[in-house]
Amino acid sequence: MNIVIVLLIVSGIVAYVGNYIGRFFGKRRLSIFGLRPRQTATIFTVLSGILIALLTFGSVLLISRDARTALFGLEKLRGDISRTQQELAKKAGELEAAQKAADATRQEIADLLATKKALLTEVETSRSRAVVFSAGQDIYIGKIVGGQGREAAEAELKKLLDAVDAQVKKYRIADVEVDRSDYASTVSYTANTEGDIVVQLISIRNVNVGGTLQVKFEVSPNRKVFEKGEEIAYIDISGKLSQPEIEQKIKELLSLANFAARNHGVIPQATGSLGEVPYSKIFETGRRIKGYDALTRVSILAASDTYTIGPLEIDFQVKLL
To answer: What is the pLDDT of residues 188-211, one digit of tens each?
Structure first.
């Protein structure tokens, strides 16, 4: 508002002065540059108009910062706008590229999830086709007291079947089935046979995950197979061999003892093992043999009375030959 007032005042003053000069030259019929007085007055009138415009323009520039910016900073402003537009276009391109990359990443994630799902399905299918129990495999080995009558025999067999059922649940076995005639004959045998009886439950056929396990009974008296201290197997080993070679010979002796125990009627556990021998025992026996530095006879003895149901517990005996 202030600049408008100033411009009005300045313009009025300049117009007044120009008009006064023009009238002054007109009344006195003065002339410049040899022009007629009327032409001279016209020139002064035109010059006063130009002066009004110049003063107006100068006042605006002097008073208004925005006017100065518009006049002198216009080209710079245009350059800034152009650079800003270029940067915006560049950012828009980068944003579009990032959006495309994000879309591609989302698609890759979706593809990976689909692949994972397909693999999980394939794994589940493979598991369902996997054989968890083979025909003839021992599923469970237990011991019951015989000669207590039919009711007690049925109760003992039911405990064994319940134990088997609980054991095979982790393989998602749907059910455990026993042939009625086989079950009846097993009950009759255990009810009328005195002493401890070993009961084996054996898979009749291959069973897949989720399938039905069909088992049969095998029963036998739990008789004593080896007396405590009885020799099961032996082998001659030289103390001049290296420690690893001696230990390998001892492992061969263990295999012979395992074979002999099976032949005598010791039943392996469901895992297939007759018993565990810690490595420390093998190592110490090897050191004893090595200490003789001569030919020795190494025997495997029953560490305790061993029965059909096992397990086979052993001791090593080393003698110098």
So the answer is: 999 999 999 999 999 999 988 888
- Which pTM does this prediction carry? 0.55
What pLDDT is stored for residue 243 in this prediction?
Answer: 94
**Close Cβ partners of 41 (under 8 Å, ≥ 6 residues apart):** 22, 23, 25, 26
At 27-82, the pLDDT tens digits run 666 566 666 666 666 776 777 677 777 777 676 667 666 666 655 666 677 777 88
